Every structure is written in structure tokens, then in C-alpha cells.
Amino acid sequence: MSSTFGTVFRVTTFGESHGRGVGAVVDGCPPRLALAETDIQPQLDRRRPGQSGLSTPREESDKVSILSGVENGLTLGTPIGLFVPNRDQQPGDYAAMSRIPRPSHADWTYQVKYGIRASSGGGRSSARETIGRVAAGAIAEKLLKQHFGVEIVAWVSAVGAVEAPDLAGREITRPDVDAHAVRCPDAEAAQRMEAAIRQAREARDSTGGVITAICRGVPAGWGEPVFDKLEARLAQAMLSIPATKGFEIGSGFAGSRMLGSEHNDPFVMRKGRLGTATNRSGGVQGGISNGEPIVFRVAFKPPATIGKAQATVDFEGHAVELEATGRHDPCVVPRAVPIVEAMAALVLADAALAQCARS
Ligand SMILES: Cc1cc2nc3c(=O)[nH]c(=O)nc-3n(C[C@H](O)[C@H](O)[C@H](O)COP(=O)(O)O)c2cc1C
After folding, report:
1. What's this model's pTM, rounded to 2 decimal places?
2. Whole-angstrom Cα distance, residue 229 to residue 243?
3. What is the mean pLDDT of residues 253-263?
4. pLDDT at 231 over 70
5. What is the Cα–Cα distance from 22 to 314, expressed in whole angstroms?
6. Quick one: which of 139, 131, 198, 187 has its CA closest to 164?
7. How many independent structural domains does the chain possess?
8. Residue 126: CB within 6 Å of ligand 1?
9. 21: β partners
């Protein structure tokens, strides 16, 4: 049910933040794809905590092991088991929070839903769950790159009120993105974003942000036309990432303020086939990719766990003041960049394989 994503390229994630470890089972990856841990580790390294002063100091090396589905460096077409152990657990950090549901976190909703919840660290609601997604997404990305020439790059385009200039028209690469710890390729904006995150951390507070992603080389024809529209699948994938609050593709909400004559993407003949002169559609029309780059944005809220005192109530309804302890991210977007890329890869790999069944 809720822990499985995809129809043909299917991924199930497992594990709690303070249990033995986390991971994923990937079922439906085609056979004979060259695959090793070294294909997966770089994206996990970009996601892991403790990378810079801008993220939680929890120290995890997040080293992945492939448990099954690969032999002599090639996928077998059987389920691929991926495992990452948890090491730096400090369950004591969460003692106060076992009595007090954190405002805007998932403690209360998990408790009402299941009548029980992981005793510390948020369990499945912790961002450690996304390790399985990032590992599986790295496999999907390799498949997309090798078989279809698709490339996905995401970057931080806003932190709080600090916005980067529009970079979607530039050929941004992952090294450009990683040139700054905040993962914004624009040097001037990156500096102001880093200052905003440090300021929030010093105030024992947190801040939100926006990630922009571009998927290049997606051929026309991927995505299903009714309920599984490509943008609907992307929206579901992105809004399943913890702390997300918004999804926009192409012109997004700004498109609602334009006239049709301003908004339409006129067709042009390009390299012997139809393309569009502008890309306000964000690469998807009628739920189906049109061959232009797929461009979307994802909004992340400020993380809920903050050291600053908050008036709230405990599970029994008694008024309390909560000052969260433990190690938390003051802003999640620098670490969420590879998670957005991974979820986009899972959607596109699934759409690619579904389209292969038709052609
Ligand atoms: C990379 C990443 C790191 C996160 N780190 C934290 C954190 O340190 N503290 C926190 O309260 N929430 C953090 N979150 C968000 C929570 O997991 C999330 O807010 C919580 O599960 C409640 O879900 P919701 O915000 O989607 O409703 C993080 C999210 C991501 C994507």
C-alpha cells in the first residue's frame, strides 16, 4: 500500500529512523543493466546528513549494499534489495517529544492512525525513509540515461524570501549545483541563501525553500492521458516527499494570471519534427510528454522540529512549552535536491517502461 510506488518499475521502501537500517526493494528493473553500489552511492552522499554546516549534524555514512538482483555487475531482472544501516542513533534526544506531539510533525497523526508509533526519531516519517527512494532512483536514473538519454538536474531556487534568478533556460549541471553547499548554482543567491539558513539556525528556528528540477531528453509520448497524466504522477511523487507543500509545472500558478495568447506555446519545426518555441507547458501536454524539457518546482515548508520555545499541549492535552532537543535540519532543501531527482527518475522510468509495452 503506502510504501510502494510505481506500476512497472516498482519500488517499496522500508525501515525506521532509529531501527537497524533503511532501504528499498526495486521490482521490475530490466535485466542486463550494468549496476554496482558505486552507481548509487554518489546520490546517497548528496542526501546524507552532516555534509555541511547547513544540515543536521547527525553523522551517517549511509553506505549502501546491494543484497540481491545483481550478479557479476549486471541486473538479473529479479528484485533488487538495497540496504543502508543506521548508525548514529541517539534515542535519548527524543525523550520529551515522546510525551509531546511536535507541532506540524507527524507524531500525532501516526499515533491516531496506528494506535502506536516508533518510540523515537519519527520512524517512517523521518527523512531517513527517503534513503530507499534515493537508492532506487539512482538505478532508475542509470536506466533512463543509458537506454533513453534522459538527464535530470534539480537545484535550490529559493530559501525563505531569497530567490535565485530563473535558471531553467541554462544548461545547469550537477557540478554547477554542488559548487555551493546550499545547492543553488547562482553564486550571489547561494551566498544570501546560506546566510538565511545560518540566521534561522542561530535563532533556533527553521526556514523553507523551493527546488526547481529539469528533465532533459524525455522523448514525446511518455505518460498516460487520463488519471496517470505525467504531471499528475510527478505531483504525487513530489508531494510524497516529507515537508513538501506545493508543486508547479511549467507556468504553474503564474499561468493563471496570463491570457491564452500570452500563454500558448507555438509549434515550430525543429530538426525535422515539431517542437515548441516556448515551454510554458513545462514539457507535458494532455498528460503526455511533448519532447520539450520537463520543468517543475517543489515547495518545502520550514522543518517542524525547532529549538525555539513553542506553546502547545502534550498528548493528554496539558499546556506545555516545547523546546525541541536533538539534531535537526534548519532547512531541508539542500539535502532534498537528490530526493527530488530520485522521485522524478522513478516516475520517468515507470512511464518509459509502460510506453515500451506499446511500441
Ligand atoms: C531531507 C529532509 C530532511 C528533513 N529533516 C527534518 C528535521 O531535521 N526535522 C524535522 O522536523 N523535519 C525534517 N524533515 C521533514 C519531516 O520529515 C516532515 O515534516 C514530517 O515527516 C511531517 O510530514 P509533512 O511535513 O510532510 O506533513 C525533513 C525532510 C526532508 C526531505
Report:
1. 0.97
2. 23
3. 98
4. yes
5. 29
6. 187
7. 1
8. yes
9. 85
